[in-house]
Amino acid sequence: MPSDSELVERLQRFGFSETEADVYLAVVERGQATPSTVASAADVSTSYVYDIADTLEQHGVVSVDRHQSPTTIRARPPEEVLGDRVETMRETISAVTDRYEQPAEGFDSLSVVRSRQTLYDRFRQFIGTAESELFITVPADVLPELADELAAAVDRGVLVLLAVGGSTADLPASVLERVATVSKSWERGMTVYLTIDQSTGIISPSSLLDWKHGDAEAISFHNQSVAVAVESAFLGTIWSASEELVLRRPSSLPRTYDGFRSSVYDAALYTRQGRPVQAEMSARPTGTRDRPSPLTGEVVGVTQNFVEPTGAQFGMQNSLTLDTGDETVTVGGIGAFLEDYEATEVTLRPLE
User: Fold this and answer.
1) Are residues 94 and 119 in the same domain?
2) Same domain (yes/no): 234, 292
3) Residue 33 maps to which CATH number?
4) Domain assignment present for 68
5) 81 is in which domain, residue-wise?
6) What predicted TM-score, i.e. pTM, was given to this entire model?
7) Is the dihedral of CA 204, 207, 212, 216 positive or negative?
8) What is the tens place of the pLDDT at every residue in 112-164?
């Protein structure tokens, strides 16, 4: 049989506080008792017993007879009141289990890739899963191997930022526009980077993409922290130091975006062309857990690091400035901290 301390601990798992459990057990052991008797048994003040008895009565585990003198506290049958809680817990577990989705196998993992063919297969697989954004550096002679997958991502509306290493003389603008939203030339020694949707990616020496790659190894990852670090290095170092080659035309409007950065890219190009744009958002003040609410206004400013001229203070900064009619506010994506609001959904419309 469990000790008193073990029973108290178990009752706490049912939602009792430690003192409530002590008082409840004192009543259960006697069936019914006066507050003074319970106070002595539970080692608390009599006035406190009255307060706790009121709480326990609200929870349905005791009844309090205040018309009798002295007041009497009676325990309801434990198998009845605790049985109800057990059943509630079972129903809750069942409901949560029904909603539970097993995380994808391999999530939050790192793996080493040593084979050229495996690396290409991993590139194609990852690119095919991109939903909102994809950042990649590859040597120019490797790009044709991945062109179809990159073009399909662009067609899905994914924001594709491509830094091409080496000579791009044999890559016409029509090819670059097909495979990327923005293409740039990266002339330094090539480490190949791929990061997708801040979750998945690859880091590899470019030599592993050659037939004679020796002992070169790549790292494939499913890890948000690693992905954000790689993305930050890409935008803050590689992208900012690369030369712009080709910009893809902005999307036709209206459009609702899966990723905030895609909306920033389109807004930047439209406003640069002198074509006013209205943004309709679900947003909440930054640093809060408030439920997102509608926020609408004309886009009067864009801060971004995708195309020249940029106005971002650092590589990861992307925001829209809106004139709502009542005030001017800044909006960033999910996780924004410099802006006034963070947006969870964005729709852009042409403003007539």
Assistant:
1) no
2) no
3) 1.10.10.10
4) yes
5) 4-99
6) 0.69
7) negative
8) 998 889 999 999 999 999 999 999 999 998 899 999 999 999 999 999 999 99
